[in-house]
């Protein structure tokens, strides 16, 4: 184990065991270096790594603190690695996404407010009205974010946002088949939003799962092995 790894795992252990609590300032460098048996350089690199993961927050002029360790924030850091997935790995993630999108859609159907439903249909109308694939992708993203938000679990919403962020790198609407795919996607959105508006969790879950499965099929059939493009 390298000195940096030793410092990284040592700090992580202190946080995991509660010795360093959420929001607490970490001990001075000299004390940590002595306890962990590492140099200042190794400790600082470990701190940078933990900061990138959202575990530690350096505050200019104040010191370095353990973050609030909110699940949704820590899950968001998965994007650092998930963004590297090639298409075959992303397609494996879609199996997870189908289950989770169905779950949050069912929850949204039970919990959505009139304001949420109005927002969903407004986003659909905007998607149907635009000819810009980039704008359509952004509106699609906002539509699914709104459903996840209505589902009431910020951690789950954060995880799905990470999954969708990688999906958006693959743009199928700009392909020759794009207009037909857009029409199908927009129709799927209306079915899903209608199920939520009807307060029908079962129908909402089924519509969400079918929509994600359709996007997965498009990616399998139409996308090149790896292209850093933006989603359906």
General description of the model:
It comes from Streptomyces griseoloalbus. Keywords: DNA-binding, Transcription, Transcription regulation. InterPro entries: GntR_C, TF_FadR/GntR_C, Tscrpt_reg_HTH_GntR, WH-like_DNA-bd_sf, WH_DNA-bd_sf. This protein has 232 residues and is mainly alpha-helical. The protein folds into 2 domains: 3-66, Winged helix-like DNA-binding domain superfamily/Winged helix DNA-binding domain (Arc Repressor Mutant, subunit A, Orthogonal Bundle), CATH 1.10.10; 73-222, GntR ligand-binding domain-like (Four Helix Bundle (Hemerythrin (Met), subunit A)), CATH 1.20.120.530. Helices cover 69% and strands 3% of the residues. It has helices at residues 3-16, 29-36, 40-52, 71-76, 79-82, 87-111, 114-129, 133-151, 154-167, 178-197, 201-222, and strands spanning 56-59, 63-66. It has a two-stranded antiparallel sheet with strand order 1-2. Helix 7 (114-129) runs antiparallel to helix 10 (178-197), helix 8 (133-151) runs antiparallel to helix 9 (154-167) and helix 10 (178-197) packs antiparallel against helix 11. The longest helix has 25 residues, at 87-111. The protein is elongated and about 65 Å long. 31% of the residues are buried. Mean pLDDT is 88; it is low at 226-232.
